[in-house]
Design brief:
The protein is mainly α and 458 residues long. Helix content is 75%, strand content 0%. It has helices at residues 2-21, 26-38, 44-61, 70-73, 79-87, 90-100, 102-105, 109-130, 136-156, 160-188, 204-218, 224-237, 244-270, 277-282, 288-303, 314-318, 332-338, 340-357, 364-370, 372-379, 384-431, 438-457. Helix 3 runs antiparallel to helix 6 (90-100). It is elongated and about 115 Å long.
Length: 458
Amino acid sequence: MVNRVGDMGFLMGVVTIGMTFQTFDFAQVQDLVAKGLADHTLASGYVAGIAILLFCGAMGKSAQFPLHVWLPDAMEGPTPVSALIHAATMVAAGVYMVARTYNIFSADPLSMTVVAYVGCFTAIFAATIALAQDDIKRILAYSTLSQLGYMIMSLGVGGYTSGMFHLTTHACFKALLFLGSGSVIHAVHNQDIWKMGGLSKKMKITTLTFAIGTLAIAGIPPLAGFFSKDAILDAVKDSTIPHHEILYFAAVFTAFLTAFYMFRLFFVVFTGEARDHHAHDHAHESPITMTAPLMILAVLSVVVGWLNWPGVDAYSKFVHYGEVHLEGPSNIMQLIAQSWLSIVVATAGILLSALFYYWRVFSAEKMAQTFRPIYLLLKNKYYVDEFYGWLVDNLLFGLASVLKWFDEEVVDDGMVDGSGWVARKMGGLLSLTQTGYVQNYALVVFGAVAVIFLLVSF
């Protein structure tokens, strides 16, 4: 249902391209857009309109606000399916579509600005929601929303390579995290993190691989997430998008939140004392058929970021928009020195999470009670689902009931049944003239002749 909304805008954008350029070939469209803008036969606002309509499809497929609500609810499916959806298939489609049609988006600053700010808002919006969720898969789902926002924001600010690179690295560690959560669920038969705890003693491989995935998504060097996330922050920092400082601050703050809520998940599930002793007593490491993919993905979560190792830049040379542009640091130490802010922010998020959920210096329960309205707002996902429910129940169903009444009372009873009633009454009146007596017909003929004679006489 949600994707039908996004697909409607996407379809309108595709049809508009066909009507305007008489082709759907990207290379031809790129040339025609550039030519049209150069000779002023094509308004930049028109190109922006096409790009924004296409972006509606990306908002649906890659779950950008406000078309994000389907993705967390899709967690009802099996965990391997969740891993596939979140890592490599459906949610990647929107990001890839924007990249594939980048010549249209980059032709107008307005469309780029819209893409950048929608991605930024989605990133921080989903990250804040993840802070208060209790379902292990739902936390990861909102993490996916946030990281997709990162990718979309990167594309919007002109960071084509960094956005696609993060899509690549994210596929590895997010698949790892989802399959890791499946291993945990298989062990304890529950998805509530507050009914877990102390699983590191029972599940060594799952714990280690999950820790690698968590460090990777937090952006700790030299794991995969560090290289791609830092590239996005650099792209935002160097952007010419209006008020890009806001985007940069939001991106850095989102990185802090990501480290915090992901290590909240890790500490609650794998460290401390068992909360459900029955589940803990029966917990055990998953079979090799489940742990082998975890180990493979853990290795990839470490090394896939090295595709853009400073001085090598293999990914940037392979995936780029326009000319290859390489002016980064020449070695890893220089990169780490330049990326000190993102590393400090991620480390701060991890330490703060440890203070709450590992060392328990602060009480998360007391914090939730102190700021209960904010906690409930985040736990209930800003009540967006409830708002959509109200909108459907009151506006959509209300409009449907009005249309139903109009269809039944006006169309069916009034127009359709009414036309039949009129036909029957007219037939009834005409039937009065069909008496079957010749003298009556003759009288009518005589009267008609007399009327005609009188009219002609005057």
